[in-house]
Queue: 2 jobs
Job 1
Amino acid sequence: MSTRPEILFPLFKDLTALEGIGPKTADHMVGLAIERPKDLIFTLPQSGIDRSVVSSVKDALVPQTLTVEITVGEHSPSRKKSGPYRINVVDAHTSFRLVFFHAHADYMKKILPTGKRMVVSGKLESFDGVAQMVHPDHILPSNQIDTIPKFEPVYPLTTGVTQKTMLKATKSVLRLVPRLPEWIDPAEKARSDWPDWHVAVANAHDPKSLNDIQANDLSRSRLAYDEFMAHQLTLALARQNLRKSKGLVTIGDGHLRRKILEQLPYRPTGAQNRAILEISADMSKSVRMNRLLQGDVGSGKTLVAFLAILISVESGGQGVLMAPTEILARQHLESLRLLASEAGVTISILTGRDKGADRVKKLAALASGETNILVGTHAVFQRDVIFSNLRLAIVDEQHRFGVRQRLELGQKGNAVDVLVMTATPIPRSLALTQYGDMDVSILDEKPPGRKPVKTAVVATARLSEVINHLRMAISEGRQAYWVCPLVEESEVLDYTSAEDRFKSLRAVLGEDVVDLVHGQMHTMEKDSAMARFEAGRSKILVATTVIEVGVNVPNASIMVIERAEIFGLAQLHQLRGRVGRGSSQSTCLLLYQAPLTKSGRRRLDVLRDTEDGFVISQTDLEMRGSGDLIGTAQSGLPRFRIADIDSMTALMAKAQIDARTLLTLDPDLTSHRGKAARVLLWLMEQEKSIRLISVG
């Protein structure tokens, strides 16, 4: 089945094939991301209106939508052309008015003749103490009362698309809905009490009450599961495809790792040992490793990464560690250099800055195998970068790379093992969505001896106290970071810029004491400022978020974050992680400008109350949603129409197990259920994943 199955053809026709949709309306529908009938099927009502009939509007709480039988009374046209046209009406217990604007008297008398029994449905409001219904949604003779739905679905709208249009188009599309073969595991379907697909679609578009619009409604949860299932099948097929491609069997004898472990001043945590075992087990298999190493700030990812690279070197191969920025790449080089010399292996760095003879020399050492470990930025992707025997590629801070770049790096060697590291703890829902094709190792312990960072929330009105606190800390030989949100002063925003804060701190604390680092500086300037701070020659480093990841100065024990309320939670957590790396007690001061918004206060409170990155990332997810959290444009996150990543994690986890189990039992999707799963993939437009199936 390498082309779309015929049973789905009607759902992929032109929108204009539907009743009530001409070319103009079809153009407007694009605003709702509706381009084919299939898109309309998955655009469900977002609320509903109760139109069950009441005997009278007397004592009704206004404003409220009501449906009531009336007797039409006197018409009162306006003397002004654009004024309101009023009609007095009487129900079983009281009288009220119907009001119309730009109305023609002849037309009004025709549709609402005086003395006639009618049914009206619309929003009842009060104007000058008189109950009135302006432009009722429905006006019908009383013998047609049954044609008004007791509960009317309300669809999302966009410019040029009305409720009437949506209702008409949806009725038309529902007539095209085919009976599709079942792709859900029969036991799971029975356990969850889910209806068949075509029944679920019909029910979801015909809610009988507000309960039927809730996410836990059986028809809706089944359709959400289908979206998750298609996505997880795609990831599982990518995973299966990767595992089909032969990997290199990489088994080290342990002699280099033993050297490192014997010289460590502490014992690795249980989580680090577990991660290393998982990675070495993957590397020893003849299928490619595709693993995510997730660790909170300070959980010891660097050691795990280095030990993983040593497995490659022990087996006669090379390893590459790739970072998203030059600052981070150089930090990695510094932290690994000492370990490399202790293990007796050669390490080198390659960035966009390397030019001419120096670059040629580095590339030659890499191609000959003289360089065992390469640290680099995206410069590693360039064609002339050739390894002698690359066995392991490690990508740090994956959220800053596209998935395509991750795959390109994996292609640098012959079936290279890939390990992705992130210091941003990922909530389970996002891990399932974005990294569902990967196996996951989690570092959830901190190395012994690390003291918690004391975090305080301080108003900018107390700035002079903060500076005095710094003056004392400097006199005791300590160092501090001071992070600002902007580089230069902005006329629009009143945030203190890094440049201005740098000048004001130098004026108060002394010129030799304060240094500045930001992304717009020349690389040489930036490097020398960092080097002075790392060597302890300068005591305060004023910076932008350029220092968010990778900077490691154990003597820096104070982190001041100015206008902390405008930073994201994950970013604040990363910045705080720059301190607390030495033996002395560290402090993080979150400076805010009053008054705080409710969400600003919540972010700062969460950060003050916990250092657990997983708790922080889950709160961030709840506050911002997954799209904002990792930036949907670069994340490759799917856009689900019905399913909600943030609130349906359990459903997604269930879909992942089901998808992986199905492919284990039926890798080519040729069984009855496997063929049904192919139909699902076509329905959800996952054609790329269908190409990954070896048969068909």
Note: Residues 218-244 form the longest helix (27 residues).
Job 2
Amino acid sequence: MAKVLGVILAGVLVVPVAVAQQDLLGVNHATVIRSVDFTHVDADRYPSLFTSKELEDQIATRAPGWRTRLRHRLGLSDLWDYRLNPIELQRDVVRLRTTYHDAGYLHAFIDYAGSRLDSVANAVDIQFNIRQGPPVIIQDVGFFAAEGYLASHLDGDTRTRWIAFRDRTSFKRGDRFTYFEAVRIEDQVLNWLKDEGYAFAELYSVIEVDSLYNTADISFVVDPGLRGVFSSISIEGAHRVNDKVVRRALPFTEGDAFAMRRLIDAQRALFGLGLFHVAQVELPPQPRDSTVDVQITLRQARLRHLAAETGYHQRSGLTAEGIWSHRNFLGSARTLTVAAEIQSGLLASSGLGTQASRLLRASVALTQPYIGTPRLSVVVEPFIQFERDPLLYDVIGGLGLNRREYGINSTLLYGLLEVRATSLRYSFSRATQFSGARESAGNVRDAYGKSALTLSGTLGWTDDFLRPRRGVVIRPLLEQAGQFERWLGVKQLGLEYVKAQVDMAGYIPITRAVNVSIRLGTGRLWPTGPRTIELYDQEGILTPFDAQFVAPLENRFDAARFYVGGAEDVRGWSAGLVGPKTNRTEYLRDEQGQIVILGDAPATQFEQFEPVGGLARVVAGAEVRFRIVGKWHGAAFVDAGQVSARGPANCVDLLYTDTARSEVASVQCGVSDDGRWRWNNFKVGAGAGLRYDTPIGFLRLDLAAKLNPDALDLQTPRNAFLSLQDHVDVQRSNLHRYNIHFSIGQAF
């Protein structure tokens, strides 16, 4: 920090002597502080600069909180730590006066004359009286070099940039003076000069305060020195990593123009390699000339790393993942990662009318950094996985898995910051899904290829990546599937579509304890492959249907279509169940194929609603989060959304037999989808929740209600199925209006 030179008139640094108040003469070593309050006696003339909470943070005297008092009443704790210390109380007066002095109020006067002692309870109520007084106002401010004004020392574009920077950074005449602001300006000016190439710039300030007239004249005296270039780069500590790897990650080399921000970017890039747990990039002592030497000090991390973690997802239940990685595989900072993941489905709570998903996945990923630039890397990942998709039938073994997929993902990743990254990904895989056909017609084996080219990104900025309070984040995505198969001459067995979507979230702080989050999102899917398929029954060809709604082809589009509902968007509904739903409930049959009767109604199995999804989706939401106490926060929210598909309530699949292929094909009856959304089709939910702040983000517990449910939203799949067949009466329950979600991270 630069020296502060100048004349501070008499009275500014006088330490106040706290005079003992008559009411506090009876205190003793056991007197307990009952409360601490602040009164601004001249608030009518000078609006209070600090809140009571801000003043409490400056003092040592504390009163017990409500939890401590409650524990004391229950006999679980004492108030020994809240005894009055008269010496500390007088020091608090000094602390408060220093706080006001640094903020530019030289004549602030503080005492505790309003304090009162309850001799019966031996408890004291501390009352600080604050007379703030007038602030010190900036009368004149300037930046000077040896030849006069600093601006005249700079040339061309540098002078223009300096004037623009100075005008938005420095004090203005008439501003309130604070020492903190003076130091901040010094730091910012030095950083600006060093970013402009003046590696050894120096600055000190002369501050003259007239306490009689409450004015201040400030002179910032600058010695820029010479503009520099990077001369030599010295690297220490990279014992098992080639120096070329370190130099390649740096955003500068010998001979480049010096800029301080490049040193910061270099340190971030070295940490980003994952090879070092200490990376210091600094300027060693050296002459103040036009050459700049850089010293890089490294401490290597372990190159081989083994990790295991477990967690919970509402729809997938208990999860586990194991990862082994080598951070310098075959040199050049390549990373080899072997990973295994399990989503067990145990303890899942996927919601009314849905089933838990399940996943077993193994993959090997090789990451090659520095593809022409330190910010560009490529990841190649072969994988194999087995799934239980709730929208298919359980047919593979005891785990109920119904989809197998293997393939390779290749990703180009261009990263700037945590919330500024762009990726281009090409995926090619072979999927086989097994769907038990309805009405005991046997299993359908559907094998097809998948190829997709996806461009996605995360843009914007936030003050905190895990728990943002201020900022904007935009996540666009553009995906094309099927075209690569055609270029490569591969048989067209897969998906063909174009998909675009964008999600935006904004974070607005209202107060220190209250924050508002707003979300908007939309997306559109355009199938580009064959739009129709011919179905046959005993009498010949039936009317062609849109291929995306026909089994087995319909199931292929499940992952590509848009869905709304769940913990991440419209929380009044279970995952994906906003919009039309197909009832997947079936009769339970005996060995002879006869329907089993239990009581007065047929028995059923596989009781589940299948969300139809849509070619388009739009969602919006707002959430207010507020601090309750400590790491606990509360939230209130409202969500709305819709998908473009529309259909009649209580839709049950129709069955057609393709005699030429000996397969059963099912059509989601009555569903229409033109890819458009309508104002009267929005589903709206609202609710409240609890948040607990952890190192990995918020743990969220939300209770949400459907404000405008449709007929099926308040029925069970079984009742909807049987009532359609006139076996039972329609039974709707308002309990189904509510949904509970447990999740980790931001809702949006």
Note: The mean pLDDT is 84.
